[in-house]
Amino acid sequence: MKLPPAFRSLQYPNYRLYFIGQSISLIGTWMQRMAIGWLVYRLTHSGFMLGIVSFAGLIPTFILSPYAGVITDRRDKYKLLLTTQIAAMIQASVLAIAVLSGYYNITLIIILSATLGIINTFDSPSRQSLMVKLVNDKKDIHNAIALNSSMVNMARLAGPVIAGIVLYQFGEGLCFLLNALSFIAVITCLLLMKLPKHIYTIPTKNMWQEFHEGYIYLRNSPQLLRIIIMLGLLSLLLMPYATLLPIFAKDIFHGNAKTYTLLSACSGLGSLAGAYFLASRKTGHNLNRYILIASFFFGLGLFLLAVSTQLPLALFFIIVAGGGMMTCIAAGNTLVQTEVSDHMRGRVMSFYSMAFFGMQPIGSFFIGLLSDHIGARVTVGLQGCMGLALAACFLPGLYKAHKQLSKPANAAIHTAQ
Length: 417
What we know:
Elements: H1 13-44, H2 47-74, H3 77-101, H4 106-131, H5 141-169, H6 172-192, H7 207-219, H8 222-237, H9 245-252, H10 257-279, H11 287-307, H12 311-339, H13 345-356, H14 359-374, H15 376-403, H16 412-415
Helix pairs in contact: 1-2, 1-5, 1-6, 2-4, 2-13, 2-14, 3-4, 3-6, 4-13, 5-10, 5-12, 8-12, 8-13, 8-14, 8-15, 9-10, 10-12, 11-12, 11-15, 14-15
């Protein structure tokens, strides 16, 4: 049976297993994220503490990503991914046991969030690097990356909905337990994959030299560098808005866990629409233009969310923001993955992770602190304005890239020697 163009990467057995396992596991991941935010705000009623927990969960990526990238290029990416998934299942299990038994406090939540952050630091480059190797025809890499973004956002839509029901009926502990169980699916699918045996090579350089080579490669790849910087700024200035959604749900719109679920689910719905839009595009479309337009709508959606006084309007504008955010992220990821050379993939993806994931904790910390002083609504409004300014600042560079696509800096590595 011939698959629709948007799903053509599913014809490859290994990618299909990856897609199925991750789809189930990520629903649990989003349930845990929802439950963590609600639990922290229920315990502390503080936007600052929401920022602290988010900071703890993401700051390891900023610190350890370069090291993780070198490890990913040196090691078997499949075994590394399997290890991180098992470790994440253990973390979720400990969190579930602590909350269900009632023996927990904000300190334990911060420690476990930081633990998961360390795990994710090694998980992200190994997962990104392995994913493109699961597609036999390189022409379908663009579709595989976009389809992966669609899968992430299907989970981002379904996870909060399920979490909202579970939170309202049973509390946060069951959300954590279901997340722990969801890892069984991805671990099973990884074990069922049939991959060529990894060929180990003895490193001839130390880790610092290999990290420096990755830096030189990136510095001599203007297209890659521009996209990574822009995604890093989006991550720092705009994406932490999600940290404040519990405040919007409970204090601004005077709701409960169901309201929080609606806001998160609508953000996921917009993200899913953006990711599906990219997955359905044919290879060769200019992704720089999509990034520019999407970043504009991301900022505009956040600004309009901040000034909305009615929940239905807020839900619509958060869909707009979510769609802009994910289109920008998926297009940027696709550009990075398709332009980077295979021997540099792990190191470049570690810089990508450091910019994209590593900037979020810093942003979350200051966004949470700022919201305690000027309010969540004004804070998100400022984020929206910064998003519009960011789109304007990157307009010249992205317009230039629209006229002339950059070539991978294959010779850049020689500059480092």
